[in-house]
Fold these 2 entries.
Entry 1:
Amino acid sequence: MTDLGWIEGAITAARPQAMAALLRYFRDMDAAEEAFQDACLRALKSWPKNGPPRDPTAWLIMVGRNAAIDAVRKTSRETVLPPEDLLSDLEDAEAEAAERLDGSHYRDDVLRLLFICCHPDLPATQQIALALRIVSGLSVKEIARAFVVGEAAMEQRITRAKARIGAGNAPFEAPGPIERAERFAAVAAMIYLVFNEGYSASGKALEAKGGLCDEAIRLARLLLRLFPAEPEMMGLTALLLLQHARSEARFAADGQAILLEDQDRSLWNRKMIGEGLALIDKALLKRAPGPYQVQSAIAAMHARAIRPEDTDWAGIDALYAALEIMQPSPVVTLNRAVATAKVRGPEAALAMIEPLGARLDGYFHFHGARGAFLLQAGHKDQARQAFDRAIALANTAAEAANIRQYLDRVTAEAEKAAS
Amino acid sequence: MLYAILCYNDEDVICGWSKEHEDGVMEKLGVVQERLAKEGRLGPVARLMPTTAATTLRKDREPPLVLDGPFAETKEQLLGFYVVDCESLDGALDIAKDLGKANPGGSYEIRPIALFMPGEPKEAVGA
């Protein structure tokens, strides 16, 4: 008797590869989904009875494909195929399917499936929703919950997104090296979006969205397994692991966010950190740096510091300087300024972010960081103004509460000085 | 006689375990391990990181070839293993290359260890 929990785990694990292969076969998203559903139902009936197949993914692909062909034949009143309980005994057929899976098609199939979901015409949230539905197999209800919208609204959104990408235009020919690299970059960005959707959640939303981080890590690992020599994929996977390792320490019991420097580092997940560091180590040997690798190296600097005061801020400053060149953006410079403040003092950091004022004026973190630098530099009144501005721009109650802590500190210090 | 027990499973499924499930399994394994340790029959126990963290050194040629990913051939068999302490993957690869020079042919898969318990078996139980 095969344990039902194991079956569920095996089906979830097999889903991206199986869906990708079925999509190549049918060239139609709905047909692929239907075939996969069908195969899953048959697995639930057959596996407990006959035991798990040697290669669940190959089994699901073959049965899904045959079920669809079967349906076509039934409607045209032709002979039906042998039932799947017989099929799972056909070791040869399974081995043959597995062999096909090992071919180079396979990895491009999965890349294609993910790439279709990050169609540039789709807004980021729809890309994420579509990937979660099609690739990860989350139910519409689960996705709706993660996005805090009604189920019907999410169903409609996904249907519309599917219609918009019209799998008919999907690129089914094998990609060339340049195309593959482009798809790769788009897919990596989408996986990071999925992660951030979960990572940026706080309070009540955290419970609903926390699973998105795990899902993003699963997708990143999947891609890394298919493209084991891609240093940026190693970097992205490491980045996600290192960030997610802190999840137990990021929020207080009352839901208040805890800043990196104030976190209880004994709550950081050492196993994830170990894996993240090992992946960075591996990526370094490729000597082909990229933005994900640099960001993961920054996260690694924090992960390696047993106490906040052990943090190698000069190293972080240098890594941000490299990231500024690879991926120039005012937000990167703002992040660098935090490290610069530690190494060269708050005045240097203020000078660094001064030119960003025009572009980041509506950005909560800009005013929050500026306030903190001003406070460190002893400009209390200006700091208070910056903090007020930040509170006005805060996106969440937790963000505002965080700034209020700083404000309280300014006020308390001012009172102490006065008394 | 000392025996090695090698663990195989679908890492996609294992990596997808919830923390509760994972903790539950580790606890149950811990009970067995503790009994064996008390009896002086438990040697080193290692849990390896996922194959995505693996590097393979093919030492059937000179210079040996470094490949990303796990050892994937099926015509060769697992014959032994080393546990070495290194600062970085580079260091581990150097050791593997030295070993490969001493014994060319086949491959080494270099996989970081996630969890290691050295263990102290009494020598040659039942010998």
Entry 2:
Amino acid sequence: MNGTIQAPTIEYALLAPMLVVFGAAIVGVLVEAFAPRYLRSAIHVPLTLLSLAGAFALTIWQAAAKGIPTKAAAMGAVAVDGPALFIWGTILVLAFVSVLLIKGEDHFVAAASAVPGSAEEEQALHEGAAHSEIYPLVLFAVGGMLLFPAANDLLVAFVALEVMSLPLYLLCGLARRRRLLSQEAAVKYFLLGAFSSAFFLYGTALLYGYAGSIDLAKISTAVGSVGGQDTLLYIGAAMLGVGLLFKIGAAPFQAWKPDVYQGAPTPITALMASGTLVAAFGALVRVFWVGLGGLDWDWRPVLYGVAILTMVVGAVLAITQTDIKRMLAYSSIAHGGFLLVGVIATGKAAAQNASALSGILFYLVAYGFTTVGAFAVVTMVRDAGGEAWHLSRWAGLGKRSPLLAGIFAFFLLAFAGIPLTSGFFGKYAVFQAAVSGGALPLVIVGVVASAVAAFFYVRVIVLMFFSDPAADGPSIVLPSRGTAAVVGLAVLATVVLGVYPQPVLDLAHSAAQSLFVR
Amino acid sequence: MHIVYPVVVSALLFSIGVYGVLARRNAILVLMSVELMLNAVNLNLVAFDVWLRDRLHGGQVLTLFVIVIAAAEVGLGLAIVLAVFRNRKTIDVDRLRDLSEDLTEADPEEVRP
């Protein structure tokens, strides 16, 4: 009894990207409290962009100079391994791009608490008020996105899930135009999100009762050794799965996605469609492979069904949509289904797992950039009352603005997975892993669903180029430098990943090679 | 006390919460039902913690986290519900139907700004 205790070790250098983002978010809150109103945006924008860029640089430095760690950090709570570092880099770039889009135009309401058309609203507009809180909120959401795929125990996963989701619920309700739709989207997202996170938690509690720990590695060892409490295990795993599948918008739980994507301000939709999907997929793969890997005989058939349903529902329902953002939301659901094909394509051999994982990682990068670019184009096509959301308004866009329509058509072709775009190699990597993993029927369904999806992408292209523009058609706003940079970067990424994907494929492969730490 | 009692009580509580979310139409009551579900989780975690004689008390620690995050969630949820109520004078979730499938077929001019 010499009075010493063993202090926990925390690898600050490993966690640095995340700490930078969270630190900048907290500084942002302080700026909001102490800086005068006219200065706030001028401080927030560089702070947000610099912290995201700095976190990206730290992630690269960690991966390149110090190598990929082989042990979970922070006493086993956060696993900063190859896939996590790759996903971090992806999320940080996508978030940077989304912030450029957020600061681009006046997408956000001046005073969220004021009723549209009221005297308060008039006054807020007159004073030039703005909710500069959106920048710290975005940073908190991005911090949660970074933590979620790296969470190595269910407590951290739950906290990350909420830190990611809570700011997004608020951000959804802050659109400047079509405010009622935006607030309705926030209510729907919030209620369904809280409902699903309660399922996630109940699953956590049951798995804790089963394994005696919430650590994914310990749950994994308990799956093989603890007997006689299989009810707890099965119900717990199922409920955990419901919570995770909700976040990626897989088929029985996809109902929120079109509503929320349609109602939310378009830059926030871009952030959700790219960053949240990437983060949630990272977490889903980690929980199912690391934590419940020994149970794969049981969850594989279920995910098989979910993947088929997701692809079919996403592709078929997208055909009937007349709202451009809703259509992109259904396309995002279908892409979630394609990615689930990769999750199922695991086998007993480590090489098979690595190829499935690298396929998923490459797909996430390819899809993330294309979807941000597509939503950036959506922000630029304007009607008198805001964005021209109805598809009929897009008719003849190719004759008014060939460049913009061409870029959008290119993104749609990438979504469809036409060769020479990034989408082709993403689908190829995932489907190839699935074929060698013995999931051929799933791949056939996937290819058919892609063909159905291609139909409605091509329909939009035909609408843009081969029909006459309406006399009072939408105007194309001259993009701000930020928006133009976003579109340019997204086009560049889609072309480069489609023509010369090898560097990124290699990177994804080497990130996936070590698989997840346990 | 046998572990089955608290586990069954919490399962019942969770089921009541699920029923409430599905059956209630008032957004505040839906929120309260979600809270009921979270409290079922808390009861479950504490009971398992005692049953497993967890030396690190992982279950109780997780319970504290759940309580804090549930409080944050309620704060945020009430803010969103309040904003909707100011604009629409109703928080009936069945009447929030502007973002549903059938209306998207309508003419763009008919939708309220």
